[in-house]
Amino acid sequence: MPFATSTDVLSREESWRTLPAAQQPDWPDPDALERVCDELRTYPPLVFAGECDNLTARLAAVARGEAFLLQGGDCAETFDGVSAGQIRSKLKTMLQMAAVLTFGASVPVVKVGRIAGQYSKPRSQPTETRDGVTLPTYRGDSVNGLAFTAEARVPDPQRLLRMYNSSAATLNLVRAFISGGYADLREVHSWNQDFVRTSPAGQRYERLAEEIDSALSFMRACGVDPTELHRTEFYTSHEALILDYECAMSRLDSRSNDRYDVSAHMLWIGERTRQLDGAHLEFASKVNNPIGVKLGPTTTADEALSLIDRLDPKRVPGRLTFITRMGAEKIRDLLPRLVEKVTAEGAQVAWVCDPMHGNTFTASTGHKTRSFDAVLDEVAGFFEVHRSLGTHPGGIHVEITGDDVTECVGGGHALVAEDLHQRYESACDPRLNRSQSLDLAFLVAEMYRGRGTAAGVRTVQAVR
Ligand SMILES: O=C[C@H](O)[C@H](O)COP(=O)(O)O
Ligand SMILES: C=C(OP(=O)(O)O)C(=O)O
Ligand SMILES: [Mn+2]
After folding, report:
1. Burial level of 155, CB count in 10 A (0-12/13-18/19+)?
2. Domain 3-183+232-463 maps to which CATH number in 3.20.20.70, 3.40.120.10, 3.30.390.30, 3.30.2270.10?
3. Ligand 2: residues within 6 Å at CB?
4. Known EC number(s) (predicted)?
5. What is the distance, to the nearest Å, from the Cα of residue 408 to the centroid of all Cα atoms in its chain?
6. What is the pLDDT of residue 307?
7. Is 272 close to ligand 1, i.e. is its CB under 6 Å away?
8. Ligand 1 center–CA 124 separation, angstroms
9. Ligand 2 atom 7, closest CA
10. What span, in angstroms and rounded, lies between the C-alpha atoms of 240 and 166?
11. Are 371 and 418 in contact (CB under 8 A)?
12. What is the dihedral sign for C-alpha 367, 380, 65, 271?
């Protein structure tokens, strides 16, 4: 029995409750919330502390420059999205992107989904107005409903139980796919079956899959068929936003007596909740999972150093990942100073680029969107900065889906604003669809190999 569940022990670790917690729901009935949290505290962990430590070790390799992080998935998972088809299609897209990056860039890829727990959303505005009616904003399925009705928008703590159950069901299927052979590299063609004929990205992928096949056949012919090729690791992550939930899901590991948030392998703190004197940092500082922090364009180098002191005082490589999301127009100006100061201080963090959240805009049609070119440009800027400083561009953090949605403009099919209404299905931010995601993976692999400057990669894209 790896975890102690005594509430006496748990209550010692609630120091975050004395600090201001941004972006928390206005739960109408605090007693109902408390009853839900009491119940969550009795539930089994979704992940095991040892798995979190394994991910820390993988992220340490990223920080040392020996591996690349691919972190991706929905902006907001939904309870309705917990179906075999949708889970398989998200996993498939991540596996295809990882195959492209591993083979195309010759680097081990650490795969982390925004999955099995990404149900809570921070928002820019507390309310939303449509046709003169003002209601509280949607804060993710863990809090309230997306439907624009007064009833749906009331925060309901019962949803936190559904978050746990939906996370468990999703994770169960992900684990089954991973251990049952679906993620075996020998399946590299089958992930593409429903895709290859219809899409240039699918056709390009098919050619790469053939090369992987040849390489595997060559290795087998040489008598080498290492089991590592048939085993894949896949980890889960989400934003640690609703602290009552995350705290109720924290447990002591009986092996080490260390505390872990067992709702996911990795947690990150968002741009809107990373205040140095706030509750989210306090909570994250008390759990041993690998932690990410989003760094937006207002982040100062001193803030970055203070974040390291708070979250990684022992300087454990792999513990802390900085996920920068500056915007394509700002990254080349703002990132160098952060990286320089952090590097000079001697802290070994993993640097990862989120090219989505600094590049959101409202299209002429009223849809919240992102342009594939801006996404690509931010990644290119990220590579340029790290290359010029001699530091490691450690990965990408992206909002993607396995479905053929029309949420971001540009990419291989050159979607335009007028296309967005066709399949705009995101509950929150616009995601890259499957073919845009694969396009991105190919271009990132080129940048990683050093062949792709920003301009060069844009030319490759234009002539395809
Ligand atoms: O994904 C995240 C945030 O919730 C989102 O970017 C905020 O979007 P908003 O400006 O629509 O609230
Ligand atoms: C809210 C998000 O990002 P950020 O905190 O960077 O705005 C997100 O990742 O969905
Ligand atoms: Mn988002």
Report:
1. buried
2. 3.20.20.70
3. 75, 122, 239, 270-272, 294, 325, 354, 357, 429
4. 2.5.1.54
5. 18
6. 98
7. no
8. 6
9. 271
10. 16
11. no
12. negative
In this prediction, residue 459 carries a pLDDT of 42
Tokens 């150093």 correspond to: 305
CB 160 within 8 A of CB 40: yes
What 3-state class would DSSP assign to 136? strand
> Which pLDDT score, from 0 to 100, does residue 10 have?
43
Report the pLDDT value the prediction gives residue 61, as an integer from 0 to 100: 98
| Nearest ligand, CA 354 | 2
Domain boundaries, the chain: 3-183+232-463
Give exposure, 67-103, as e/b (b: 16+ Cβ within 10 Å).
bbbbbbbbbbbbeebbeeebbbbbbbbbbbbbbbbbb
Q: Rounded distance, CA 189 to CA 200, Å?
A: 15
Ligand 1 binding pocket includes 121 (Cβ within 6 Å): yes
Amino acid at 451: R
Ligand 1 contacts CB of residue 7 (under 6 A): no
Q: State the ipTM, two decimals.
A: 0.98
pLDDT in tens, 227-246: 777 889 999 999 999 999 99
Q: Which atom of ligand 1 is nearest to the CA of 124?
A: 12
Nearest ligand to the C-alpha atom of residue 271: 2
CA-based nearest residue to 244, from 32, 8, 44, 420: 32
Which atom of ligand 2 is nearest to 76's Cα? 10
- pLDDT beneath 70, residues of the chain: 1-12, 197, 451-464
Mutual orientation of helices 84-105 and 200-221 as an angle, nearest 10°? 70
Q: Residue 456: what pLDDT?
A: 46
Tell me how far CA of residue 327 lies from CA of 6, 27, 213, 370, 379, in angstroms.
Answer: 45, 34, 38, 11, 10
Distance 280 CA to ligand 1 centre (A): 18
| E-assigned strand segments in 5-98 | 68-73
Residue nearest to atom 8 of ligand 2 (CA): 75
